[in-house]
Amino acid sequence: MNLERFFQEEPFAWGADEKNGILSDALWKLTEKHRKACEMYRRILEALPNGTFNSKRIDQVPTLPIGLFKRYDLKSVSPKAVVRVLTSSGTTSQTVSRIFLDKETSVLQTKALTCIMRSFIGPKRLPMILVDSQNVLERKDSMNARGAGLVGLSLFGRDHFYMLDESMRVRWEELGAFLKEHAGEKILIFGFTSMIWQYFLEEARAGKRDISVRNGLLVHGGGWKKLQSLGISNDEFKKAIRNQFQIEQIHNFYGMAEQVGSIFMECERGYLHVPNCSDIIIRDGRSLEALRNRKKGIIQVLSVLPQSYPGHSLLTEDEGMIEGEDDCRCGRKGKYFQVLGRLPQVELRGCSDVYAYGESH
Amino acid sequence: MEVLSPANVKAMDYQEILESILKREPFKPFDPVLMAFAKDVSDAVLSDRHFRGYPDMMAAAHWMRASHIKEVRERYESRRQGRIWLPRGTVVHFAPANVDTVFIYSWIISFLLGNKNIIRLSQGRGQQVNAFLQAVNGLLENKRYQPVSDRNMFICYGHEETVTGSLCAQCDVRVIWGGDETVRLIRQVPLPPYATEIVFADKFSLAAIKSKAVTISTENDLNDLAGKFYNDAFWFNQNACSSPRMVVWIGSKSDNERAKKLFWDALKKVIERNGLKEDVAVGLNRMLTGYSFAAEGLADRLSSQGTERPYRLHINDLSDRVRTQHAGGGVFLEMELSSLSLLTRHVTRKDQTLSVYGFDKDELSEFSSGLLNGGVNRVVQVGQALEFDLIWDGFDLFTYLSREITVK
Lengths: 361, 408
Known about the structure:
heterodimer; A: alpha/beta; Rossmann fold; twelve-stranded mixed β-sheet; globular; disordered C terminus; B: alpha/beta; Aldehyde Dehydrogenase, Chain A, domain 1; Aldehyde Dehydrogenase, Chain A, domain 2; 2 domains; seven-stranded mixed β-sheet; six-stranded mixed β-sheet; 16 helices; 17 strands
């Protein structure tokens, strides 16, 4: 599929009028493509009421519950064409999603990510600190979301420094040396939110380490569930990082293994932004109707990147709210939104189900 | 290890309590103390406002009220036909995690027949179970019920094999309420050679509705049917072994289509009227179940693209995979057949209760006598699926929990 036009312009250049037609066209084409190529996807579409979709609207694109990727190997390419199997990090549940990438999808993911990241960190590669351990990257053919994030983001840096050792302890001395060597330069720091909190921030606090990264640009995301359970909001996270390390520029991002590449980055105003190649819709938790801006609901994510698996339209288990469209004060166009957290999960089999039932009375 | 009843004993005493229970003589069947105690438990629950929000608990208490226990006794006498039936001795019950009130029936029947009882309750039991035990413990403080207190114990522990082992080593009957996994685990623990066992494994239940009967029914009848079906299905969120998870429509094509529309619309209204709440995740899980059925090719039509409740999945074949993939929570499988007798070839030993609507007695007995491949143990009218019966899963509890002495 030719998606060049999605990457020719700035990733946040399109306003709604310009974007909707192009995006809807691409998403419906993908729906057709996957219907033809993925047996399970075809069966689902055929079983849905009004199985023949005449609509061209984006909010009518059939959407799969994201949990389906934990149950089935959904793919639209032959096993031979698969270059990498991506798995979700699976920290909070035992089952993980398995996402099959072919070359094309993999290339598109990198392209999209590059476009998006450049908008935030500029065109130049920066000296880079990864708040993780290099061990995560050992296997190339199969990778979890954490590894994929590290590999993906490392493209935007140079002189990469993995600051944690294999037992997840900060290599303080090497870190000091790295900062000294790059004094005065802008430094890109990347890591997963909960890991930054637990292994970097809390360790620095506990050991009273005075590390200052005034020129740092921190990009972090994923693993919000842990901080949510500790009751730490994005704002509190930012404040704590600023206090401890004096890092001024901090960008959270929202993304998932099921749609790598088309991530949503937090702007200078604190909102997550939808790039040209993707979209989000907030839906009512019960009726699944698309909600207006500033209404809280379940996040549906759409992306033109997934060519090798039918993951171009997914209903997540996260709650969010669209703040507005095309008018964020940061200057970027497109929808901008917030993620409010994960839906409380209900284990459906056995006693806990009866629990939920009993307690709701 | 936690001893939930009798109250005021330390956990470490459970061995002692067990020993003392084992030593005591059982009651005679339907001893006046037993009857009085059952009545008092029933009264205590029915008069306590706290239980109003738990229809399952209310139903259990209703089942235990004096007038019904009297009926139970009459049934017992008519089955006994003058023979000598005595309690078997000590019955160990392993209650299920998914249906909170089953242990009450299991216990009370065994209790009325004179047996001594040890009941292992799930760690995941609901608050209403604790409230129930509180009521029981309150009654046991009465001196009059000391003999009851001496012969019944409710406990809760993880699945420690040593505890299960010591409970099973000296019992006379073991009653296991499934899942299959629990049954498999507990079955590995030996019983004394003389002991017997009643096992209730995972079951699947369904409803068969004669479409013609729905299409000609008045609006009142239809609402009544939907209301009864609602109770069968939603009291335990479809998790009781006898709650219907599937509806089979029996009739001509056109009748089936019309009946479906009428029935599901009526059921939707009942759900709305009852204001049955659920977490958003339950609805999303329904959708995930539907999409999974479709992806696997088990269902060829879904009633909704979203999270609709009831969520209907149309199937053409009732396979074992279909049974195990069903996760409750307001999902209904749906199939059509031209006659009830055709259903026999779809049922297996996994199937327990068939709730029916619109069939006459002859049709039902003809169908039931054709059930040779092990499936379906109960055929009841819609609305009675959850009613506990003295014959459960094909076991006559009177005979399984009694021993007969032949005198010639």
